[in-house]
Amino acid sequence: MPRKVVFIADADSWSGEGLIARFSAGGSDLILNSSQEVKEWEDVILFCRAAGSKVLITHADLCSSHDLTTMLDQAEKLLGPVDVMIHNCSLIRPARVESCVESEFVEIMQRNAKSAFFCTQTFGRRMTDRGSGSMIFVSSIHNEKPTGMSFAYSASQGAVKMLAHEAALFLGRAGIRVNVIEMGPVEGSDVSFQSDITGLYNDYRYKIPGTKLGTANDLADLAYFLAGEESGYLNGADIRLDGGFLLHYMDHRMNKPTEGETRSQ
Question: I need a labelling partner for 115 at 20 to 30 A (CA). Which of 4, 137, 158, 162 fits?
Fold first, then answer.
């Protein structure tokens, strides 16, 4: 893939580590938006530079058009215009329909969905001026499938999905591709989505036909593909990255190890 400038909206997240490693290995220059101090990124910066990548740590408020614009002005002077925008903000917090208070709902929607809107608008304008670019939204299988523990999370992911569809329709006319990765189970998802009204994540590893959970590297590899020319005809796509998890429908037929059997994970 030709050298690109890649913006990662939440470099501090679990997905950020995989994205940073994959894109730096591919020779991209990185803008990493973070809530941490620059000194906490020293090891990552050294790693990326060793791979030949330039790195800029930013602290933009993703829900502020002014903040994003100011950040991009500075970043473009140092690295050039952004070719790939990856929005991977994904705050998961219990928020039941019957008990969620307004402040919890607003915080989840702002972190996940409002930030996606402002990133789409701000980056979209600049990409439109250049007539090229790629936007990748890291969403979740819960943009349609209820969690049973956080309607606000599901609602935010559904909003991101439809935002991406609308953006693909409009920005696609200017040569910009907009696609969604619907991430499925990873290590710890049974804790993150613990619910007392659904058993979706009970023995969740064995509800995946191959019994293998997804990783940040799996996500990063797909994002790297979506950012490249090989996926040039993909626009407005929702790619489910869940190992077949949502295809499961009979718990008594789970692919669980038999007694005494071990299985490498």
Answer: 4
